[in-house]
Amino acid sequence: MYDERCIFCRIIKGEIPSVKVYEDDEMCVFKDVEPKAAVHLLAVPKTHFKLLEEAGESGAEIIARMLKKIPIIAAGNGCKNGYRLVINQGDDAGQTVFHLHIHILGGEKLSDF
Ligand code: DGP
C-alpha cells in the first residue's frame, strides 16, 4: 500500500531523492539523512504500516525476511565489525516517521545505551 502523505513511501517510489544502497521487491535500504553513526541506514518495507502491531501476518513475514537480508547489506556498507538495529515505536521512543523502519547503525564503536 502507498500513502502519498508518507515521506518513506515517497522515497521508495523515487518521488523524494535518497541514497539507496539496496532494493528488492519488498524492501528498500537508504542512507539516513540525519546520521547518528558513521554508517546509518534505514531498512524500510515497501508496504506501508506504521507500527509492528499493524504489520499483521504478511508484514511480520516481510520483517523476518528483511532481518535475514540485513547482515549482508550491513557488511556490504561498512559494518564489518558489528552493528545495531533499532526500531522506534511511537512517541515515547521518538518515532518521527510513521512508516515502520529498521535503523542500521555501525561503522564505528557505538556508545552504550
Ligand atoms: P525515527 O525517529 O525512528 O522515526 O527515524 C526517522 C529517521 O528518518 C530519522 O533518523 C531521520 C530520517 N529521515 C527523515 N526524513 C528523511 C528523508 O527525507 N530522507 C532520509 N534519507 N531520511 C530521513
Task: Kindly describe this structure.
By secondary structure, the protein is an alpha+beta fold. The chain has a single domain (7-95), classed as 2-Layer Sandwich (HIT family, subunit A), CATH 3.30.428. The chain is built from two helices and five strands. Strands 1-2-3-5-4 form a five-stranded antiparallel beta sheet, covered by helices on one side. A hairpin with a 3-residue loop joins strand 1 and strand 2. It is globular, with a radius of gyration of 13 Å. The model has no long low-confidence stretch (mean pLDDT 97). It binds 2'-deoxyguanosine-5'-monophosphate. 2'-deoxyguanosine-5'-monophosphate (DGP) is lined by residues 7, 11, 16, 18, 30-34, 42, 88, 94-97.
Shape: globular
Ligands in the model, by name, code or SMILES, are: 2'-deoxyguanosine-5'-monophosphate
- Extended strand count: 5
Q: Major sheet: order of its strands?
A: 1-2-3-5-4
How far is the N terminus from the C terminus? 34 Å
Q: Which superfamily, in CATH terms, is the homologous superfamily?
A: HIT-like
Radius of gyration: 13 Å
CATH architecture, by name, is 2-Layer Sandwich
Number of helices: 2
What structural class do you assign from the helix and strand content? alpha+beta
Strand percentage, roughly?
A: 15-25%
**Weakly predicted, low-confidence segments:** none
Could you give a short account of the major beta sheet?
Answer: 5 strands, antiparallel
How many domains make up the 3D coordinates?
1
The portion of residues assigned to helices is: 10-25%
